[in-house]
Amino acid sequence: EFENVTIDRKYHWAVRLIINNYIDSLFHIEDRTEEEENKLLSLFELLETQGEGTSYAVTLSQLNLAEYYAYKGDKRYKDVLKKLHHIKDRELVRHIVPASTRIKAIYYSRVGNFKKSLILILESLKKSEYYGNTLEETILMESAMDIFKRVTAQFSAVQKRKFFTDTPIFKYLLKVQAVKDTYLGKEHAKNVSILARRLGEILGLEEEELEILEFAGLLHDVGKLYIPWFTLNKITPLDDEDWEIIKIHPVKGAEMLENLGMWREAEAVRNHHERVDGSGYPLGKSELNILDEIVGISDLFDAAVSPSRRYKAHKSKDELIRELLKGEPFKFSAVVLNALGQAVDKGLA
Ligand SMILES: [Fe+2]
Ligand SMILES: [Fe+2]
User: Fold this and answer.
1) Which of 4, 76, 106, 172 lies 20 to 30 Å from 216, alpha-carbon distance?
2) What is the pLDDT of residues 86-126, one digit of tens each?
3) DSSP class of residue 315?
4) How far is the CA of 150 from the centre of ligand 2 (A)?
């Protein structure tokens, strides 16, 4: 309870920080009760009385308040953001600029102007890249997904895939992911997508499944957007802790797609590092769908033959195929290995 406390001025920053953390915890409750809602508003008010300033805590709470209004489709978000215009502190500006644009985007999506909202999200992503703000990138992802979900709510699976592959912001998210994941480079997602479709064709799958393969192949590593930059790009070998973090990327990617109602694509993304002998991650599953395996083998194949930095001694295609067939035949089922062999023979991989 902060109401009746007099605070020594020199501790104001600490109080602001505590209040701000409290705001943050209330802010992230999805269905707030009326009591929580009132508490949140009174905390915002309280923070305002703690004095203007350029401290991190004040700025964050003002951004929180602006976001709060934006989510409600309340124009007052503008007034709150205006207060931040005068701030010159570099560190804060780096946070404020992309966040303000994102908040605007949230407002427009709430009032139903999706087009404007998506343009703003793209702008915000570019700004956060410009300011090197990777934290903002992650938050932006969530906002972008929220807007996508609203736009595509009534779409069929086919329409959704078309919408996403045609949307500049989705391409941009993939670009950000590729830039972040410097070990594999920007062609990896596209290569996996093409190869996965080809393997599906060799196996005589239906058009719908081929489209799922193409889409899941493109997005298989999108969950890496959630992995910190310094873990993805570590020059020294990864330790156990790093691996634990990296292993969440299929789950994060799958959650994104599930959230958009793309269940089958999500499943293939979730399982692209699982292997039929149970040696994969994150769960060590052994019962896999053919689509999961196709995305998995396409990913492994492209990563192994591309001249990446982490796996320096990249292999020739023939070598790799031989190795897959002899050395590790139990990681993939025979049909899938066979399809890859055929693709290589025909010069398709
Ligand atoms: Fe992956
Ligand atoms: Fe990959």
Assistant:
1) 106
2) 888 888 888 888 889 989 999 998 898 888 888 888 888 78
3) P
4) 28
